[in-house]
Amino acid sequence: MKERRTAKRSPRLAGQLLLAHPVLRDPHFKRTVVLLSGHDAEGAMGVVLNRPLDKQLGELNAEFALSPLAGVPLYYGGPVEPEQLIIVTWQWIAADHAFQLHFGVEVEQAAELVGTPGLTMRAFLGYSGWSKGQLENEMKQDTWVATPVEGDWLIKHDGIALWRSLLSHIDPELKVMADAPDDPTVN
Fold it and tell me: Which CATH superfamily hosts domain 16-175?
């Protein structure tokens, strides 16, 4: 009788957050929080949540300036296709203890959703992507820390404060590392 073996599968991370480990120095991902929209055997994709461009969608072009989307905040989504605009919405549904994510929302649909109570909408230029097996290899090297989205984490903080807050929640040791200065001589 032959022994039956099953392949060990890595957990799928779509809908979760990837936090850059404090030692990650890649300028595209240093101190970032990435919201993964997709993760399967072919790769992964998401957007950097904590790199605001300090602009609104209405400043991007005249079409948006005259639409209900004019006030939607604009963020750096990642180094892949930096001219591509991606609209993302999310909502924490406390009653279901669930995170609802819509990635790549069409402009017309997004315009209809503006002002929906409890819904967060952001526009991103570019995205973050990993080829087949790349993210899994980076996870093995402790480049990223994965965590599910819970509660109102994503609306309490922004920028590096979001990254620090999430790391602090996960592990006190990571908090110490996250609070360390880039240049130890400044300490």
Answer: VC0467-like (3.40.1740.10)
